[in-house]
Amino acid sequence: MPKDSHLPEIKPPNRGVVMSGALLAMLLAALDSSIVNTALPRMAADLGGLSRLSWVVTAFMLSSTVTSPLYGKLSDSYGRRTMFSVSIVIFLLGSVLCGAARGMDALIGFRALQGLGAGGLLVLAQASIGDVISPRDRPRYQGLFAGTFALASAAGPLLGGIITQALSWRWIFYVNLPLGALAFAMIWLGLQHDAAQREPGRAGRIDYAGTLLLTSATAALLLLLDWGGAQFAWMSLRACALGALTLIALVLFLWRESVAAEPIIRLALFRNKTFARGSAVGGMATFAMFGALVFMPLYFQLVLGMSPAESGFMILPQVSCMVLSSFLGGRIVSRYGRYRPFLLGGMALEAASLATLAGLAFAGASPLVFVIVLALLGLGMGIFMPNLTNAIQNAVPHAQLGAATGAMVFIRSLGGAVGVAASGAIMTARLSHAHLGAGFSAASLHSATALAGLSPAHHAAIAFAYRSALAGSFLLSGIVMSCGFLLVLGLSEVPLRNQVGDKP
Fold this sequence. Notes:
The chain is mostly helical. The chain folds into 3 domains: 11-195, MFS general substrate transporter like domains (Growth Hormone, Chain: A, Up-down Bundle); 207-261; 267-498, Growth Hormone, Chain: A, CATH 1.20.1250. The chain contains 18 helices and no strands. The chain has helices at 13-32, 40-47, 55-78, 80-99, 104-132, 139-166, 171-174, 176-190, 208-227, 237-259, 273-293, 296-302, 308-336, 340-363, 367-394, 401-432, 448-452, 456-489. α3 (55-78) packs parallel to α5, α3 packs antiparallel against α16 and α11 packs parallel to α16. It starts with 12 loop residues before the first helix and ends in a 15-residue tail after the last helix. The relative contact order is 0.14.
C-alpha cells in the first residue's frame, strides 16, 4: 500500500522515548481525575466553600472532556509534538496554581485550567503512538495505556489520602511538576519531526462557533448528570432547563459541523462504519466500567469493613489481569492481524463478569469470590479495550488520526460520566429508602466514621442498601455491555496496516 508522502518518517530509536513520555502524560491526566477525591474534606476545611466543593471535580471533568476533540483536530493541523507540549504546559501551570490557591473559587478556576491541559494529554498520548507504531504492531503497546489508566484510576484515591495525610493536599498538585517536566522532555525529544498531519489543501482554522456549541452542550449535560437527584429533583424546572439547553446546543452543533470548513468533529468520520460502531461501543464500555466500579471501594469499606488501603488492594487483581491480558492479547493480534475475535471474547467475558458481580453483591459474597470475578473482569477489559482503540485508529486515514482519536476519547468520557451518574442515582435512591430512623441522613453515610455510629440494626439496613445498589449498578452495566457486544457482532474487520502512513 502507498504511504502518505507528506508524513515524516520516525526513526525506531525514538519509539521508546515517545512511548515513555506518552504513558507518563496519560498517568498524570488519569491520576488527577481521581486523586483529589479523598482530599476534598481537607480542602474545604482550609479554604471554606463547602457548598461549592463538588465543583473541584466537576470543573476538571468539564474542561478536560470538551477540549479532547479540539486537541485532536489541532494536532492534525499543527503537529502532535507542538500540541502535546502546549497541553503539558497548561496542565503544569494549572497544577502550580491549584497548589497555591487561597480560596475555593480560585481552586475551582485553576482546576478548570488544569483540565484544559489534561484533555490534550489523554488524546495526544494515544494519537502520538499512531505516529510512531504501525497498526499491525500497535496492539502490543495499547495494553500499556489501558493498564496505566486503570491503575491510575484505582490508585488515585489511595495516593491522594496518603499525600494529604503525610504532607498536605497542596502536594497532590505539586507532585505533577517533576513528572510533567520529564514527560515534556521525552515528547519533545522523541517526536523530533513535527510536520502537520493535515490533508493537503485543508486549512488549520479553528471552528470557534462549533467549539462554543460543543462546550455548551457538554457542560449542560454533565451539570445535569452531576446535580440531578442531588441539588434538584430530576423532574424539576432546573433539570428540564438543563436538558433543553443540552438538546438545543447539540442540534446547533451538529448543524454547524455539517457546514463548517474545518469542523471540530468531522461528521464524515461517522460514515465510516468501523469508526461509528467502535466509538459507540467505546462509550458503552466506559459507561459500564465506570458505572460498575465507581462505588466498589465504598462497598468494600462500608459493607465488608475494610480499610481504605485494603479496599485499594482488592482492585489490584483486576488491574494486574487487565495488563497481562492486554499484553498477551496484543502480541497475538500483532502476529495474526485479526482483532475482531478478541473484541467479541473480551466483551462477552466482561458482560458475564458484571452479571456475576451483580449476584455476588446482592448476596453479600466473601471478598475472595469478589477478587476472582474482578480478575476475570480485568481479563476481559484487557482483551477488549486496547484492540477497540486500535480498530478505530486503523479504520481512518493517518491525516485524520488526531481528529478520530479526539472524537473517540470525547465519546468515552461522556460514556463514563453518564455511567457514574447512573450509579450515583441508583445509590442515592437506595440509600434514601433505607430505614435509618431519626437523627441519621442517608446522604451523609459515605464514610466509615459515620457508619461506625450506627446501631447494629441501622448498620444492617445500610449494608443491605449498598449491596442492592451495587447489584443494580452491576446489572445495568452488564446489560449495557451486552448491547455493546451486539454492536460488535456487526463490526467488519479492516486488515491491520503494516506501515504508519498506509491508507485503510
